[in-house]
Structures are given as C-alpha cells and as structure tokens.
Amino acid sequence: xxxxxxxxxxxxxxxxxxxxxxxxxxxxxxxxxxxxxxxxxxxxxxxxxxxxxxxxxxxxxxxxxxxxxxxxxxxxxxxxxxxxxxxxxxxxxxxxxxxxxxxxxxxxxxxxxxxxxxxxxxxxxxxxxxxxxxxxxxxxxxxxxxxxxxxxxxxxxxxxxxxxxxxxxxxxxxxxxxxxxxxxxxxxxxxxxxxxxxxxxxxxxxxxxxxxxxxxxxxxxxxxxxxxxxxxxxxxxxxxxxxxxxxxxxxxxxxxxxxxxxxxxxxxxxxxxxxxxxxxxxxxxxxxxxxxxxxxxxxxxxxxxxxxxxxxxxxxxxxxxxxxxxxxxxxxxxxxxxxxxxxxxxxxxxxxxx
Amino acid sequence: xxxxxxxxxxxxxxxxxxxxxxxxxxxxxxxxxxxxxxxxxxxxxxxxxxxxxxxxxxxxxxxxxxxxxxxxxxxxxxxxxxxxxxxxxxxxxxxxxxxxxxxxxxxxxxxxxxxxxxxxxxxxxxxxxxxxxxxxxxxxxxxxxxxxxxxxxxxxxxxxxxxxxxxxxxxxxxxxxxxxxxxxxxxxxxxxxxxxxxxxxxxxxxxxxxxxxxxxxxxxxxxxxxxxxxxxxxxxxxxxxxxxxxxxxxxxxxxxxxxxxxxxxxxxxxxxxxxxxxxxxxxxxxxxxxxxxxxxxxxxxxxxxxxxxxxxxxxxxxxxxxxxxxxxxxxxxxxxxxxxxxxxxxxxxxxxxxxxxxxxxxxxxxxxxxxxxxxxxxxxxxxxxxxxxxxxxxxxxxxxxxxxxxxxxxxxxxxxxxxxxxxxxxxxxxxxxxxxxxxxxxxxxxxxxxxxxxxxxxx
Lengths: 354, 459
Prior knowledge:
The complex is a heterodimer of chains A (354) and B (459). In chain A, 37% of the residues are buried. Chain A folds into two domains: 1-62, no CATH class; 101-351, no CATH class. The longest helix of chain A is centred in the N-terminal third of the chain and has 22 residues, at 2-23. Chain A contains ten helices and 13 strands. Chain A has helices at residues 2-23, 49-59, 64-78, 103-118, 148-156, 187-197, 217-222, 298-302, 323-326, 343-346, and strands spanning 29-30, 35-36, 87-90, 93-96, 125-131, 161-163, 207-214, 229-235, 242-246, 277-282, 290-295, 312-316, 336-342. In chain A, 29% of the residues lie in helices and 19% in strands. Chain B is mostly helical and 459 residues long. Chain B has two domains: 6-174, no CATH class; 180-261 and 340-458, no CATH class. Helices cover 72% and strands 0% of the residues of chain B. Chain B contains 20 helices and no strands. The radius of gyration of chain B is 23 Å and the shape is globular. Chains A and B meet through α1, α2 and α3 of A and α1, α9, α17, α18 and α20 of B.
C-alpha cells in the first residue's frame, strides 16, 4: 500500500510541475531578483548547451519564488543558519554579507581614484567621503564584517580632505530591505560635509513625499515575505531654480523621476537611478561655487540636498563612463571635487572604469 | 546532464519513464539505450563516438575471446584498446608534464578533454572481456543488450562499476513492479537529498573556510571528507534508485564507510565496486596474498598505486593511493590486531587516517599537502581560531550534526526496528511524507542555487 501511494504521489508531483512548466507562459523578468530571466537556448553543438537549458528551467520553474522562500525558511528555522545566501535578518533589517575584506579591490579603487585625481586642476579642492554600508551598524558579534578600519586607513592614504561620517549615521538611517540610506535622514551628513567643505549650512525645510510600496534590493534576495517599506523623497522650494541635464535621458530635467517608483527599483526615483553623467544647475544657490561629485548610487539621494550650496553640481558615475568620454563633457577649473563612494563599492570595485 | 538538475528530474526522467513503460517489452532496452545515448550526448557531444566505439569494439572483442582459439591474443588486444583509450584521454598530458620536468624537454601538451565517465565505462568493459576470458559468463547475445549495459545512463558517468554478470539476466528479462519502483524512488530521492541538501552545502562551507587557523585547518578536511562521502554515495544512491525504477538491481557501492573500525574495513565499505574491481582484476591475478611476503606487499602497492592513479592524473592521487597501501600493510603486519581490541580508539584512528587521506586527495600540490599538515599539527605559526571560522562553524552546526548522524546507520536501524512492529503504519507514513518532503526541499535548493557539478565527474 505504502509503495503504491509513494509511486502515485511521486508521479503526480513530477508531472504536475513538468507539465505546468511547459504550459505556463514564460516571464521575462524576475521582479524579486531584478533580473532578466533566461530564454530557452537554441540548440548548438557545445558542451554547455544543456547547462543553459537547465538555467532556463530553473528560471521558469513554477512557483519559483515559493521554492526559494521554502529554502530560506528551512535554512533559518530548521538548520538554524545565521544567514541564507549571505542574507542576515536582525531587528527587522535585512543585511547582506560583504565579507571578506577584498584587499585587491580596495587597491583597485585607490588606483582608479588616483587616476581620476590626476585629471584634476591644481585649483580644484578635493574631498573624499566614504559611506559606510549598513552592515557597519550591525551590532552583533554573530555576523562577519569587513575590516572597515582597514578600508578607511587605506583610502585615507590618498591624502584628500576627508569627511568622516561614520559617527553621524545610525542603522535607522538606512532602509530595512535595501542597501541605501534614507534621503530624509541625510541632513546631518550635509552638516558634517559643510564643516569640511566650508559652506554655510542652512537648516532647510523640505516637503516629504511618500511611496508606500517600496521593496528594496535585499527583499528579493532574502526570498522572504514581508511588508513593503515607505520610501521618502524630499521636495520643496529649494528645488525651484534647479535644472537637471542627464546624459542618457534628454527627456528628463527634474531631480526626481517619479515614473521609476513603480518600476524595477523605486530607489531610481532619485536622479533617474543609474546615470553616468548628470549636471544640476541651480540659479537660486547661495554661492556661485561648482561641485563635481564622483559617486556611486548613494550619491543619487544625497546630491539633491546640496543644490542650495552650489550653483552647479556635476555627478559622474565612473561605473558607467570612462574618463576619455567625460573629459569631453567637463573642464576642471577651480571646482570643489568630492569622491563619494560606499564601502560596498570599494570592497567590490571591479565595475569602476578607468 | 546531472541527476540533481531540474532538467533531469522534471523533464528527462518523466519523458523516459513514459516512453519506457509504454513500449512493449522487446523494445525496452532500445528505449533505454536511445535515452542513455541522449543523456550522454547532452553532456558530451563530441566524445559520444568514443562511447559508441567502445561498446561496438568490446562486444566484438568479447565474442572473439569466447569463440576464437587465440583467446589470449584477443584479450591482450582488448586490454590494449581499453587501457590505451584511458591512458590517451586521461593521462597523456600528465606524462608529458613529468617527462618535460625530468628531461628538461618541451614536448607540447595535447590538451585532450577527458570524455565524461571514461574511467567507469572502460572498467566495465575491461571487466566484461576478462570475465569472458576466465569463463565466468558468455558474451552478450545481442549488441543492443551489450550497448545498453555499457551505456546504461544511471551508472554511465560516475558509477557504480556494474559487473555484466550482476545484471546479465536482467538485461534480457527483468521484473518491473510497484514495490521495486517505489524502492527506486526512495533511493533516488535519498541520493538527491544527500547531494543537494548536504554535500553541496558542505562544499560551500569548505570553500568559505578561508582563514588560516588551527580550527579551520582541521575543519576543512573533516568537512571535505563528509562532503565527498555524501556527494559520491548520493550519486550511487541515485544510480541504484534509477536502476530499480527500470528493473535493475545494482550492487551497493557504499556501506557506511565513515563508521569503519580500520582502514581495511574502510575499503570494504567505500566505493566497493571499484575496490572489488581492483581486487578481482589486478590483486588476485597478481597472486593476491597467496604468494611470498615480498610479492604480497608488492601486490598491495601495485593495486593502491593504480587505485590512486585511477582517481586522476595528478601526483596527489598517487600519493593518496600509496598512503593507503602503507597503512594497509602496517595494519596487516601488526596494527589491526591491536586496534581491533580497542572499543572507541579504533574509530578515532580510522577517522583520523581517512580525514588525512582526503586532505591529500583534495590538495593541488605536494607543498599544499605539507603546508596543510603543518597547520593541523601547529608546526606553522597560526592562531587557534578566527571569528570567520567560528561563524561558519556555527552557521552550519546543525547540518554538520545531521550529516554525521546521516553517515551512520542509526536512522536505518531505527526504521528497521520499528518496521516489524505495530508502528509499521506510522513508519510507512513518515517514509512517504519524508521522501516527498526531501524531493520538494531538494528542488527548492536546486532552484535557489547555481549549477553545481558532481565531484566525481572528474575521475
């Protein structure tokens, strides 16, 4: 009897998923993982053709996200694992391990920044600000952290004017399900920057705009069900005189691209997400100074808060643009130049272009 | 294609089962052969010709050895063909590398890619022709049956090394039943779970232990030993399970080797189809232990040199084999009778020797072996532990406990004990639920993780 039951359930189970796998139309994207799903590969006489087929079936398996959740729940609750695929859960926050400290990546970062520095004019004032990723604020001995002091010490050898913000920020200043910091919490960072960069900090009042269905990048990776967060972006009179020019998106000229709120990554609302070269001009700025920021994605939410202090801010994301190209778009004269990168990028700097 | 892949479990297997059970009895071997060749072709497109040629030629050799008056000549030709094929594809570059080193020459490497499973199907073919020569069985009556035997997909690429005599009757006439099929499902799913839920995860653990400290230098070879056991025995379980689904009963390949009480005992339990192959086709023909003491020792060293070398064209595998030869000789000479008298020590002794053996097995160079041993025995200046090692140990602690229990027959004994009691119904219920749960969990792990090939495909 047992054998009949097992055989019956096995056959029904296997057939259910294989037949549904064929019948259910393929999805193009996985919103949870924010990536394009693979297509069935055309047959080729190559050894890894079957691996591509397997990747296709893995990508389009029926109830794929539920299976991923099952694995996560099993790891956390049955095997009592501290992480699942490097994802930690603590106090409602989702963290992703970036351990170990990648010294060759840090050296690569320093090398790339040195090269950028060599393009600057002697009248440029150069600043460096390292943004700690939120793992820095993970107060637990259970989890593995990269050696933040090592990163800061190595980067400091560049001898730029250093803006230290580690003691200014707290875990609450980051999103629970995302890598990024919250724009509405960055006023204290601006204040800290003003001390080093010598601009007069003003206490500016902003209007808060809420998007209540924000799922950060770690939400999909964690494969666990949880409620969305509220993403806040700041608007106000301060932005009235601003005009934004995007290299890749000539249709947009505003700080925020609200159409991105319902896209793959709502955090792209800030300065249109991944953009290689952006110029923000503000005819109501309190100075005529100009600022050039070499940055990663953390800069998208912070930079708009600097428009009051600089008449022109140029943002260069050198993950997407080479110096050969941006040199044709900008002339270095006497601008303030800020290198602003997160420890996440410094520890994994392979994407930086020369 | 891997057994532990969505493509195999959810597409290849159901289509094959459907075709296999739909066709009349006389076409079942043909269906198995076609699907076995497709299975091989999907993983090894160019070299399928090697497999087909090996089938046809060995079928021919078998018939010639059986029918010809010059049996010995045909046997020698067959051995030269099979061993030559293995030497060319598996060992040429190793020989070139060492000749270049010794004679300071610069012979160009051939960079031949080794056909998947060549070590296994060549040994099956060799066993087949030697057994015919020794009169143990007749040659296969049909080429179709012989090709089905050699290329039978469950055991084609990573064993177990199935003897023709063990499935000779089943190739012609075999029984299919719900009971056998159900047993096959259980074995397949247990093997899948061993591979996906344990071996792959332990593999990640071993690769994460990057800090050099005393704890990690011990943990790494221990974890690798458990990993390779679950990986390889899991594959064998899947092969045996698939065999059962199609009516074949392959012999067991593992018998809880990690609870062995001596190294002699270990090799009676680990990769049994390989050790018995070397025993029957090398050790005994050389005279086994029925020769002078010196020749007996020589025989042991020849067999273990070959066993090591079979695992790969690299010096660490040869050292690994000879290491066992030394231990087995010492055990035969005096050690075994002493350790057999101990109750607990013998298990620690065996585990220690086995763990060190897999450290050698898993090393990329001789200097790495000595460096790892230096770390283990505090000859190098390293810390006792590190935060990273402790983290990974804690992160995988429950799994390690489960895998240690799983490497013993505790669960099997508990189930057997209650099987014939009034609790049989409960045990049956949990067997069904457990089997399907493991299948679902393994699927979840496969979906979540990236492609992960079997360790034993290298050999």
